């Protein structure tokens, strides 16, 4: 693990596991790299997996003077890729990280191989809204009752009860002010007009019973992004990537393998080491 310095001096945490084509992972809102525990090791069997913490979470600095934006997070991610000498990478974004992935794919399409959008949404007026009860739970996720409120939104009750360590890893990390900045960045996002311009091969993955980000958003993304493929996982909630890890990881790996040429590039435009 190490740090990269962003353009404004913010230290950004990252680590790398595995070998092969690079695969960049984007965390959910106010979560850090630990949300990928178990999942990233499966992905690293075939890929050079890069985890990074958005500013305000985990091992990254948490500057609090200015609002955060998803474009800012995307530019921070480019700083990490640049520091690692990675010209082009696959990107897997989860929840708010899926919105950052959309932003990056529109901002710097030449840097993206294939794109995986998990449990995410297009933002803005077109986004299918979550129930009010889920919004209230999300706002209280950082309180003492957070696990009891958020756990059932991510996982079926039986699975959550059997995996308390996983539930703990999907609770907000970082200063409360930074958590609010993340919330503002995510809820202020509107990617509707960006989506038709995404050129990366795209897989949309979503749990059928997700209330935190209703599954109707997955259909919107798959329809709006040219050529996107949709995978809906029956019985799964927001945290499909953990509860249905074998199936979800297998599907993601198979999709990325189909589009390995997208990250290798043309013969006259090689991927930097």
Question: How are the SSEs ordered, and which strands pair?
Answer:
Blueprint: E1 2-5, E2 11-17, E3 22-26, H1 39-43, E4 48-52, H2 70-83, E5 89-94, H3 96-107, E6 112-118, H4 132-139, H5 146-154, H6 157-162, H7 164-169, H8 176-187, E7 202-207, H9 216-224, E8 229-233, H10 240-243, H11 245-258, H12 260-264
Parallel strand pairs: 3-4, 3-5, 5-6, 6-7, 7-8
Antiparallel strand pairs: 1-2, 2-4
Helix pairs in contact: 2-3
Protein model, in words:
The structure is a single chain. The protein has 273 residues and is of the alpha/beta class. The chain has twelve helices and eight strands. It has an eight-stranded mixed β-sheet with strand order 1-2-4-3-5-6-7-8, sandwiched between helices. α9 (216-224) links the parallel β7 (202-207) and β8 (229-233). The longest helix is centred in the first third of the chain and has 14 residues, at 70-83. The radius of gyration is 17 Å and the shape is globular. Mean pLDDT is 94; it is low at 266-273.
Shape verdict: globular
Number of strands: 8
Structural class: alpha/beta
Number of helices: 12
- Arithmetic mean pLDDT: 94
What low-confidence regions span 5 or more consecutive residues with pLDDT below 50? Answer: 266-273
| Gyration radius over CA | 17 Å
Percent range of helical residues: 25-40%
Strand content: 15-25%
Q: Order of strands across the widest beta sheet? A: 1-2-4-3-5-6-7-8
For the biggest sheet, the summary is: 8 strands, mixed
SSE succession: EEEHEHEHEHHHHHEHEHHH
First-residue to last-residue Cα separation? 18 Å
